[in-house]
Structures are given as structure tokens and as C-alpha cells.
Amino acid sequence: MSDISDDAERIEELRERINRHDRLYYVENAPEISDSEYDELFKELQKLEQDNPDLVTSDSPTQRVGAEPVSELDKVDHVAPMLSLDAVHSVQEITDFIERARDEAGDTDATFVAEPKFDGLSIEVVYDDGRFVRGATRGNAETGEDISHTLRAVRALPMRLVDAPDTEGQIALRGEAMLPVPSFQKLNRTRVERGDAPFTTPRNAAAGLLRRLDPSQVEETRLAVTFYDATGIDIDTAATQWALLDRLRDLGLPVLGDSVRCGSFEDAKEFHGTLRDSRDDFDYEIDGIVLKLDARGDRDALGTRSRSPRWAIAWKFPPRTEETRIADIVFSVGRTGAVTPVALLDPVEVGGVTVARATLHNIEDVHRKDIRVGDTVRVERAGDVIPEVAERVPQPGVERADPLEMPDRCPSCGAKIERSGPHAHCPAGIACPAQLQARLVHYGARGAMDIEGLGEKTAEQLVERGLVEDIADLYDLSVANLEDLDGFAHQSAQKLHDAIQDRKQVPLDRLLGALGIRHVGADAARRLARAFGTLEALREAATRDIDRVAGIGTETAESVRAFFAEDRNREVLDRLCQAGVSPQPIKDAGSSLEGKTFVLTGSLKNWTREEATEEIERRGGRVTSSVSSETDYVVVGTDPGSKLEDAHDEETDILDEDAFREMLD
Ligand code: IVH
Asked: Does one domain contain both 453 and 550?
């Protein structure tokens, strides 16, 4: 028997050493020992902890792996509100910022720090006496979601700060979690192979990974973190932002990218230009620079708007674009029968993300942009946005194909396509294999029934082989059925089978959304679920009762009624219920924007104006048409109108699309 106090000492020593090597490897990029030497230390610690279960602590390196999944993400209040940044694009706006900041700080020579603006997931991480206690997403800035369980598996995040135990009290850090672009590409390759939809951007992937309930696969994805701000490190310790960054590094925390101290606008401009030109050389997505007043003591004099500090500003980069060729244009049939042209591109990397297809929206858009097969085009990707064919790049002297024409018949089932204005529609419903396939994918998607593994390839095979003729058939699939599909083995078949069978108790709104009723998106589904409470009540409701629900228009009401009136749908619903699908009444959606007034200007990439309005109203906010002293926020898209100037005059908080999205998140 070994002596317990010897074990305790050795355990402590091993933890210290492992932490140090984690830091050398993940933070400083300068490992001192080989992987196998590291593994040995790790195994020894595991063994000693096994022998001495009383000595296991939650911050031990061994606890990063194999942790139990949580049942849901708890809400946590942030130590300090997680402010966002005003984003600007022009030189004038930056010089204005510098001038105003100096003016208000009462220091005409005030310096600034310019940092890379990382496009990751904002996180708050809290340490108590130098030990990791928890981490959270930004949420609504005051309250976020507890992601401690997944953050523990991120090796780049120290579980103990270097000065610990001298680091007394609480430190709340502010930073970003990011998935390096190569890891993002690797993750997507595996997802596509498994039939899961790829993540659109590294940022979405990081958010998806960290918000998982089960932390088990997070470790292997090599998430990175970086920090740029902290509460709990006072002015005496770090009088400037520059010193604060150094202090964070001294604590063993990752501070990625080189920042610079700027004494003038020219310095900031140089940094902006250099970083913009070299941003493809980094493993992380950088979408601009952040300029911060250096003297932390002067920040109070500038204060904050309700959600962004006045002492910092984001200077964004223009969207990335690349040129490529349109190899072909195909027509894709969606879940509701919409037939849309899709450009198949010679694959091109646009800022680290390979783009091989891009929607062309509709035939009128194609004609307006005059895009044809074989054309060279400019593909654009801004932040989180799905890649888009921005414009044609004329190639003088090169012969062009004929203009694109809408086919007469559905490319999937051959039914005659119906046209209305720019839109085209296949009327065959689920008799059309493409629509059925898309419906299955929609049914199993995250946010709907959340059936992991029911991706496009799987759905395609299920339809092709006649195993599934409507969504209720999913519940009759046996493991043996699934095992036969390409790309499946016993274990994966069992997994998908379980995923289908285990997800039968869902909130009513999720089921309604999953059914893919025309005009019923997440918002309408929530309103209907709240108003009717049960599926039975909604099934039997008359159009006028549905129409009465706030936020549900007549068209939607009619579509809902028509859906539930149709025999085939009623039969599918009965079979779903028999299979054990049991929708649950929903809890209230919350009211994060209660009492807030918004004005929208310019066009947003991710939302139509109506959609943005809905998102705001759903959270209890209001949208008005002009800026006044009553306005809390102006949401600014591309080509904003004079409302942007009004917003400056009124000193209203300005949100770009990213900030708006963050607020909705
Ligand atoms: S400072 C009070 N610095 O960009 C501190 N933010 O679009 C306010 N971001 O919400 C943030 N890199 O999540 C700051 N070097 C950096 C940043 C940074 C990325 C994120 C942050 C913020 C978002 C605003």
C-alpha cells in the first residue's frame, strides 16, 4: 500500500506538470515533451486518482475527458454584462471615434490598442482563486448558457491559472472560442460522410460543439480560445489594455494574434491593412480589428451605451470574394416544392471555406445578373452568410452559353412545374421524391425533431429504396433496414434507430415546425403551440380560430387548416401518435427584448425585413419606421438610408447584422 500523503503530493505534482505541458502545447505553441511522454504522465495521474477517489478534484486534467453529458444547458448570470461592439466600415467613422474618445477622455494624445477581431463564439469564463469554475455563452448579454461541461474538454483553456493559488478572488474573463479552419474542414468532412449537414462557418461549428449536451467529442476537435478582457483584474495591476493583455498571458491564458499600440489613426490604418491582407494566413477567422482606448482608467469617462462601450469600436473588413467558374446550373426541389436554380461551381476557397455550390435564388435573379453556365463569377461570403454569386465577371472574347431557362417539368418527379412571377413550384407534394427527401431531412433537423444522422444522403436512400413513403414510416424502420444502407454498419444503424425512437417527446412547437406545414416557421409554430396547447386542439381548430392567434395571418391560418384537413396528413399524424410521438405543451418563450424599440435600415443578408421584425416582436420588442429619442437600437444592413445618420444624431445604439444576430441569440 502506498502512503496516501505521498500519493496526494505526487497527484498534485502531476497535475502541475500536465497543466504546464498543456500550456506549452496549446497556448505557447512550444511543446517540451513528446506525446507519449505526456500520455505517461496522464496515465499515472489517472491510476493514482483511481486508487484515491477522494483526491479527485473537478479541475484535475483527468476530468476534462469522459465527463457525463448534461440534460440541458442551464442559464447563468454573467459576472459583468457582456457588451458588444459598434461596427464601422469607413475611415471617417474611425477618425470620428478616435477624436471623440480623446475629447471625452480629456487627453489629446490618448493611445489606443488595436487587436484582431476574432469571429468566434463570445464566452465568459470565471475563475475563483485561480481555478476554473464555469463558462457561459453570451446569451442576451446579461444571462447566457452554461457550457462549463464542454469548455472543460477544451485543452487550450487552463483549469488553473498560473499564479494560482496567489490569484485570489474572482476573475471573469471575456473572450472567444474558435474552431481553427483546418479542424472545421475536417469536422465537416466527417459530418458529410455520416450524412449530417456540414456547418456553414467555423463560428457556427464552434457554437454547435460547445452547446452540445454531451462533451465527449469536443476534445478531439481542438477548439481554441482567446481572451481580451477581464473583470477582477484591477487598475493597479493593469492600468492599460496593453498591460491587461500581458497580465492575461502571465496567468497562462491564451491571447492569440499580435496586437499593436496605436498613437494615431495612421497606426490603426496600417494594422487594419496588414491584417486584412494576411488574414488568410491565420488558422482563425478574423473579420476586422478592434480599436480600444488604452488607458483603462479613462473608460469610465466615456462610459457605455446600453450594449456597447464607447471606448472601443470594431473596424470590419470588407467581405471576402473569389472568382470561379460556373460548371453547371441545376434545379433543386425543396421541401415545399419550390424549384430553385443552384450554381455548381468549380470549388474555390473563400476565406478558408470551400464553396462548391451557391443558390441563385430564382430565375429572374439569374436573368437580372445575366448568369449562364460557363461564366466566370465573383462569389462572396460575408461573416456567417451562406455563399452567394455576387456578380458575373465579363470575359471579353469568350463565347457564352445560352441564357438559362426554367424547365417545364420537375427534375425529380416530372410533374409540370407551376410558375408564379419569379417563383416556380412542383405541385406533386410528397409524391415527388425530392420533396419527400427534403421533408425527412427537415423533420429530423436540429431545432425540429433533432434526429442525429438523418442527413441528406440517408434520406435519399430511404426514399429511393422505398423504405419510407412518409415521415411516419421512419418509426417502422428496423436496425436491419438501416444496416443495408450505403455507409452504414451495425453500430451506426443502431445509433440512427435509437435517435429516431428516443426523440418522441418533443415540445409541440418543434413537432409543428418539423411537419413542414406551408408558412409555418419556428415563430408561427410557437404561437400556435402556445395558443392551442395540444395537437388535438389545433387539428380540430377552424380557420377563424387559427386566424385569431396574434401574429398568424390569414394565409398561414388557411394553410394550417388545409394541412390538418387533408386525409393523408391526418393519417400520418395518427400513425405518428401510435408510434409514440408525443408532443409536449411549451413553456413561455421569454421576453429578452421586452420594451425595446428598433428601427431597421439597409438590407440584411440573413433576414428579410419582415423576418427581422418577427424575430424582434417574438421577443417582446417593437419595430418602428423612423429614428427618434425613443429608439433603442438601429439595425444597419448594407446600403443603409438616412436613418443611419439619424441614429448618429440621436446617439442611438447601432447594430450591424452580427451584433443583431448576437442579440437574438
Ligand atoms: S471587446 C467590452 N475585443 O466581437 C468588451 N471583442 O462584434 C467588448 N470580439 O461581442 C468586446 N474579438 O465577442 C472585443 N479583440 C476583441 C474581439 C471582440 C472579437 C467579438 C466580441 C464582441 C463581438 C462584437
From this structure: yes
Is 527 domain-assigned? yes
Is 515 a member of any domain? yes
Question: Range of 162's domain?
Answer: 76-316
Q: For residue 403, how far is its CA from the centre of ligand 1 (angstroms)?
A: 45
The type of residue at 491 is Q
Q: Please tell me the distance between residue 84's alpha carbon and the centre of ligand 1 in angstroms.
A: 6
| Catalytic residue chosen out of the listed positions 43, 47, 75, 117 | 117
Look up the pTM and report it. Answer: 0.66
Longest dimension (CA), the chain: 86
Q: What is the distance in A from the centroid of ligand 1 to the CA of 293?
A: 14
CA distances from 442 to 64, 332, 447, 511, 647 (A): 34, 15, 9, 11, 40
640 and 568: one domain?
A: no
- CATH number at 243 reads 3.30.470.30
Please give the Cα distance from 643 to 649 (Å, whole number). 10
Candidate of 82, 97, 115, 117 to mutate for ligand 1, largest count of ligand atoms within 8 Å of Cβ: 117
Q: What is the pLDDT of residues 181-210, one digit of tens each?
A: 889 988 888 877 776 777 878 888 999 999
Contact call for residues 659 and 84 (beta carbons, < 8 A): yes
Asked if pLDDT for residue 139 goes beyond 90, the answer is no
Residues with CB under 6 A from ligand 1: 83-85, 87, 115, 117-118, 122, 174, 176, 228-229, 290, 309, 312, 314, 658-659
Strand order in the sheet with 260-262: 87-88, 312-316, 286-293, 112-118, 260-262
The total domain count for the chain is: 5
Q: What are phi and psi of 196, to 5 degrees?
A: -90, 150
Active-site annotation holds for 596: no
